[in-house]
Amino acid sequence: MKILALSLFLGCSVQVSAQEDANNVIKAIYTEALGEQQGYKWLHYMCTAIGPRPSGSEAANQAARYTKQMMLEAGADTAWLQPVEVPKWYRGTEWSKAYAGGDSVSLPTTALGGSVPTPKEGLKAEVVEVGSFEELEVLGKDGVEGKIVFYNTYMDHSLISTFNAYGGAVKYRWAGAMEAGKLGAVATVMRSVTLLRDDLPHTGAMSYGDSEVKIPTAAVSWQAADRLNQMLEGGTVELELFLDCGVQGTATNYNMIADFKGSKKPDEIMLVGGHIDSWDLGQGAQDDGAGCVHAMQVPNLMKKVGYKNNRTVRVVLWANEEFGLDGAKEYARWAKSEGVYHWVAMESDAGGDVPRGFGISANDTLLEQVRTFKELLSPYGLHVFAQGGGGADLGPLRGHDDFFIGYRPESQRYFDFHHSARDNINAIHPRSLEMGAASMGALFYLLDNLD
User: Fold this and answer.
1) pLDDT digits over 239-251, tens only?
2) β-pairing, 123-130 with 109-111?
3) Per-residue pLDDT tens for 95-132?
4) What's the DSSP call for residue 344?
5) Backbone torsion region of residue 75, taken as left when φ is above 0, otherwise alpha when ψ lies between -120 and 50, otherwise beta
6) Contact, 265 vs 449, CB < 8 A?
7) Maximum alpha-carbon separation in the chain
8) Which of 436, 440, 438 is nearest to 351 (CA)?
9) How far apart are CA 188 and CA 139, in angstroms?
10) Which of 298, 292, 264 is nearest to 278 (CA)?
11) What is the rounded CA–CA span in Å between residue 389 and residue 122?
12) How far is residue 362's CA from residue 403's CA, in Å, rounded to a whole number?
């Protein structure tokens, strides 16, 4: 590894060892990020002035135009918007009430992304509770037909990795309606995919697969799921469900692409990105406004501390990650057709909490080279340099490029906010956000100096 000497202090040229020089640059990056907090300012505007950015919305396009302008003001050589055809999601009124005997209990409810609406008058049916797909199969058509299936399923609290816990529970959100519909259910509801015992429902994408049967599907809050479970323990429960929602054709959203040209190896692209879309219940601060401004800060911080990048740093903010990766697929298609070579690609899509490290997908030589950076970066809380990483939006590039990095912040509270009304600017601590941006910037600085 060759570290370039920089003149950073009082305009004086300081002759120092390579490691001392790297320490100085990294410290300057963190100092700039924490002092100016430019990323937080960008995020605050996206969340409060623009707001939620669901697939197909004009707000998503406003965010793309805003971030493009911010990148040009930060010194990008080029910045442009790449059109992407995406599903246009609509959410209107939604509610549910549970009946046991003559009394009703209102349950905080939200449609899952992609759900068909209920009939205009809503629907009402007996509830049957299951804790897994296996339990659903045991009930079979006789036990499910004409009823509303309640998936009383949980993220596994015993797991250290909240993302592993999420992966074990999200299958019921994704395929629950499809599997219940095969057995004649009229709708499904599920316990929200969260680790927080709150009373806010959490949305997210679902799929009907190739099934011609499409039934309405929704999530209820954690506390509502507990109430429904308790009611069912006492006997028969009916649920009245009303969802005004659906995919209303397609619309054009945009990927935002900004290049900060390299001085020595401009054709070697160092891509850094996040996804610009969000769900519509909150402002999309954690998911993934934080990742967008993390990415935008990487070249901005490099410029602010006087560093001239050797390779081209490319910021990509993808459209429609939540509803099918349309932006990522379009960018990958274009990049492959143009023969773009991504020397490395990094994504931030795990929130804006304090940094912990990175997940790295690379050959053994590169992996070990990146791990040598731990000595330089551990003073800033970066201790994880795990094998395997990237991000959903980097997936379409796999097989074309082979060096991927996923930024890993602290995640224990991430799913408290994820896909809910809690995901707003108040969920972000400015210093935690900027520590993440500086961590990504410091890593890119070190990577840029690998021969």
Assistant:
1) 999 999 999 999 9
2) unpaired
3) 999 999 878 999 999 999 999 999 999 999 999 999 99
4) E
5) left
6) no
7) 82
8) 436
9) 15
10) 292
11) 43
12) 5
Nearest residue to 116 via CA among 52, 253, 211, 199 = 211
Q: Where are the alpha helices (DSSP H) in 86-183?
A: 133-144, 162-182
Tell me 116's DSSP state: P
274: helix, strand or coil: strand
Q: Which two tokens stand for residue 91?
A: 């959410």
The single residue listed with the structure tokens 């410029």 is 303
Q: What is the DSSP letter of 205?
A: B
pLDDT in tens, 391-450: 999 999 998 889 999 999 999 999 999 999 999 999 999 999 999 999 999 999 999 999
Structural domains of the chain in order of their starting residue, each with its CATH number: 18-77+261-448 (3.40.630.10), 88-248 (3.50.30.30)
Q: CA 99: distance to chain centroid?
A: 36
Per-residue burial over 241-280, b = 16 or more CB atoms within 10 Å of its CB, e = otherwise: bbbebbbeeebebbbbbbbbebeeeeeebbbbbbbbbbbb
Provide the token pair at 368. Answer: 């070990």
Residue 285 structure tokens: 């601060």
What is the residue type of 255? Answer: N
Burial of 68 per CB tally in 10 Å (0-12, 13-18, 19+): buried
362: DSSP letter:
-
* Contact status, residue 391 vs residue 344, Cβ threshold 8 Å: no
CA distance 35 to 29: 10
Euclidean distance between CA atoms 231 and 211, whole angstroms: 32
Q: How far is CA 262 from the centre of its chain?
A: 28
Does 389 or 140 have the greater pLDDT score? 140
Q: Phi and psi (nearest 5°) for 298?
A: -55, -60
